[in-house]
């Protein structure tokens, strides 16, 4: 198992969390026209090997879900930076490990839904919660890189 792509992704996530840019997400490009359907080969099932940082990674996914909801609640133009960051992290970290992918996705969604059930409008408490979760996410990402990086 290599930690290179994971560490790189965590560093990028740390920078995103630390700076908390308010850049508007770019619109996704439309799929190319005239695309022919091809049958994809069956996915290779890989035995899941839990990493020593899985619990921290699950918590980071939950934090990213929370920040994604709260940021979009309180900014004028919705942004997709946090969800896209989480998707990239899931893609790189879980590869062909379906159960890990499901756990990380569930954690992101749990973080999102937790705040969606509490805040329907942007309040001062929502702003403070977003700042605290962003700080926690930056700390988690830094700890994972420092402790488990090469």
Word description of this protein:
It is a single chain. With 150 residues, the protein is mainly α. It is 63% helix and 0% strand. The protein has 5 helices and no strands. It starts with a helix and ends with a helix.
Global Rg? 17 Å
Number of helices: 5
Major sheet summary line: none
Task: Quote the distance from N terminus to C terminus.
Answer: 12 Å
User: What percent of the residues sit in helical stretches (DSSP H or I)?
Assistant: 55-70%
* Coarse shape: globular
Determine the structural class based on helices, strands and strand pairing: mainly alpha
Portion of residues in beta strands equals: under 5%
Order of helices and strands: HHHHH
Name the poorly predicted regions. Answer: 15-32
Q: What's the pLDDT, averaged over the residues?
A: 78
**How many strands in all?**
0
Please sum up the structure shown.
The chain is mainly α. The protein has helices at 4-19, 54-74, 81-94, 98-116, 124-148. The protein has five helices and no strands.
Which keywords apply here?
150 residues, mainly alpha
Helix-strand blueprint:
Blueprint: H1 4-19, H2 54-74, H3 81-94, H4 98-116, H5 124-148
Helix pairs in contact: 1-3, 1-5, 2-3, 2-4, 2-5, 3-4
């Amino acid at each position: 198992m290599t930690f290179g792509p994971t560490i790189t992704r965590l560093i990028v996530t740390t920078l995103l969390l630390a700076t908390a840019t308010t850049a508007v997400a770019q619109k996704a490009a439309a799929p190319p026209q005239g695309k022919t359907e091809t049958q994809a080969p069956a996915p290779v099932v890989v035995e899941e090997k839990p990493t020593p940082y899985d619990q921290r990674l699950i918590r980071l996914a939950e934090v990213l879900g929370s920040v994604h909801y709260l940021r979009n609640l309180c900014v004028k133009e919705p942004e997709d930076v946090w969800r896209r960051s989480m998707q990239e992290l899931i893609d790189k970290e879980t590869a062909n490990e379906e159960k890990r992918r499901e756990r990380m996705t569930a954690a992101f969604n749990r973080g999102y839904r937790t705040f969606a059930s509490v805040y329907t409008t942007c309040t001062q408490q929502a702003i403070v919660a977003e700042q605290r979760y962003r700080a926690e996410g930056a700390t988690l990402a830094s700890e994972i890189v420092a402790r488990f990086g090469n």
